[in-house]
Design a protein that fits this description.
heterodimer; A: alpha/beta; Hypothetical Protein Ychn, Chain: A; 4 helices; globular; B: alpha/beta; 5-stranded parallel sheet; 20% strand
C-alpha cells in the first residue's frame, strides 16, 4: 500500500476523534435516532466523539418538539441524555439555521453554534467522519 | 490501506447498497484490505435471506455473501437496527419468540461498538447513505 495517502495515525490507542455528522430531521426516518444511538454508544465506550448538526439535522436540536401528535418518541429527550454519557460537544451550523429561519434561542442549550468557516475547519481536520 | 464500509441503504429500494458492494469489490481489486463491512439502519436488509428478487435482477444479498465468503470479510450487522427490521439469527429469533431466523450465513449480529472499533482501526471509513 502507498503509505503517503494514509493520513490516519494507527490509532491503536483508540484516541482517534470521531466526528458524527447529523444531516437529517428528527422525524420521518429513523436515521436521526440511529445516529444518536451511535453517539450514546460512543459515550458509553469512552470514545471521543463530536456531533455536528447540519442541513435538516439542525431540527433535531429544536426545543419544544411536540411528538404526542405523531406517536413518536421525543428526540430532544434522547439528545439530552448525551451529556450523561460524556458526549458534550454538540455543534450546530449557523448557515443551516439561518436558511431555515431558526433562531439559536429556539435550540436546546447543549448545542454550540459555529459559523461556516469553523464547519469547514472541523470537516477538514477530523480523521474519522461518520455521516448520517 | 484498510477500509471500513458502512452500508445504510436497503437492497432494491435505492442504488446505494449496490454501489457500496461495487465499491467493496473495487477496494479488493485495487489490492487494499477491508477491515469490516458494517450494515446499519436500512442496510441490515442486505443480510436477509428472505430477500427475493426476479431472476433477471442482481441478487444483492447473495453478491455480498459471495464477496464475504471469497475474501473472508468480517460483515457485521447492527443487532438493534436488525431486530427492529425483522432481521435476526436463529438465537435472537428464538429469544424473542419469532418463528425463524433469516440472517444470511457469513453475516454476524453485533453492537455499534463494532462500528466505533472499525472507525478507530481503519485508514478510511466510507459511508454509503440511505436511499432518501
Amino acid at each position: 500500500m502507498n503509505d503517503n495517502v494514509t493520513d490516519n495515525t494507527s490509532a491503536t490507542d483508540g484516541s482517534k476523534r470521531i466526528l458524527l455528522v447529523c444531516r437529517h430531521a428528527p422525524y420521518g426516518t429513523s436515521l436521526a435516532r440511529e445516529s444518536i444511538e451511535t453517539a450514546l454508544a460512543a459515550g458509553a465506550l469512552g470514545v471521543d466523539i463530536t456531533l455536528l448538526f447540519i442541513n435538516d439535522g439542525v431540527w433535531q436540536l429544536y426545543n419544544h418538539q411536540q411528538v404526542s401528535v405523531i406517536a413518536a418518541k421525543n428526540h430532544g429527550a434522547m439528545l439530552s441524555a448525551l451529556p450523561l454519557y460524556g458526549v458534550e460537544r454538540l455543534l450546530v451550523d449557523e448557515k443551516s439555521l439561518s436558511e431555515r429561519g431558526i433562531k439559536a434561542s429556539n435550540l436546546t442549550d447543549i448545542a454550540e453554534v459555529i459559523d461556516k468557516d469553523q464547519v469547514k475547519h472541523l470537516l477538514a481536520n477530523c480523521k474519522v467522519i461518520l455521516s448520517f | 490501506m484498510k477500509f471500513t464500509i458502512v452500508i445504510l441503504g436497503a437492497p432494491y429500494s435505492g442504488e446505494t447498497a449496490d454501489t457500496a458492494c461495487r465499491f467493496a469489490e473495487a477496494v479488493i481489486a485495487q489490492g487494499h484490505n477491508i477491515y469490516r463491512l458494517f450494515f446499519y439502519h436500512d442496510g441490515v436488509h442486505n443480510a436477509s435471506s428472505l430477500v427475493t428478487l426476479p431472476q433477471d435482477e442482481i441478487q444483492l444479498p447473495q453478491r455480498w455473501q459471495q464477496l464475504i465468503d471469497q475474501y473472508h470479510l468480517e460483515a457485521v450487522v447492527c443487532i438493534a437496527s436488525a431486530l427492529r427490521r425483522g432481521v435476526a439469527n436463529d438465537i435472537e429469533a428464538r429469544r424473542f419468540g419469532k418463528p425463524c431466523g433469516n440472517l444470511l450465513e457469513g453475516f454476524e449480529l453485533a453492537g455499534i461498538g463494532e462500528l466505533l472499533d472499525a472507525a478507530a482501526h481503519s485508514d478510511r471509513l466510507i459511508t454509503f447513505g440511505p436511499s432518501s
